[in-house]
């Protein structure tokens, strides 16, 4: 489940990481991830793998479509949080 969420967070909405991190941590600290001590490490490893696979996929496809190297979710995250220009979405110049 967490691998799918990691993939979706990279491809669709990076804010999903903020949503699902507390869920993962609560499952980790309440021992609901699996009966074996290595279960959290395996889940984290699979999640990192699928997040990187999703990143490569979305950068590859979107770079072809936009004709430049681009990660759209990364650009949106940078525009909204670092530049703090989220208030400019949907405004018209006239």
Which structural class should the secondary elements be placed in?
A: mainly alpha
Question: What spatial form do the alpha-carbon principal axes imply?
Answer: elongated
Helix content: 55-70%
Taking Cα atoms only, what radius of gyration do you get, to the nearest Å?
Answer: 17 Å
Spell out the helices and strands N to C: HHHH
Strand content: under 5%
Which parts are unreliable, with pLDDT below 50 for 5 consecutive residues or more? none
Oligomer: single chain
For the sheet with most strands, the description reads: none
| End-to-end gap | 46 Å
Mean pLDDT: 81
Number of helices: 4
The count of β-strands is 0
Features:
single chain, 94 residues, mainly alpha, elongated
Describe the structure.
This protein is mainly α. It has 4 helices and no strands. The chain has helices spanning 2-11, 15-29, 39-66, 72-82. α1 (2-11) packs antiparallel against α2 (15-29) and α1 packs parallel to α3. The chain is elongated and about 60 Å long. The model has no long low-confidence stretch (mean pLDDT 81).
């Amino acid at each position: 489940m967490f691998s799918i969420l990691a993939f979706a967070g990279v491809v669709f909405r990076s804010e999903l990481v903020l949503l699902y991190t507390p869920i993962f941590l609560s499952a980790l600290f309440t021992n609901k991830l699996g009966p074996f001590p290595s279960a959290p490490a395996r889940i984290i490893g699979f999640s990192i793998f699928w997040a990187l696979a999703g990143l490569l996929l979305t950068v590859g496809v979107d770079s072809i479509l936009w004709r430049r190297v681009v990660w759209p979710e990364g650009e949106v995250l940078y525009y909204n949080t670092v530049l703090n220009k989220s208030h400019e979405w949907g405004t018209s110049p006239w």
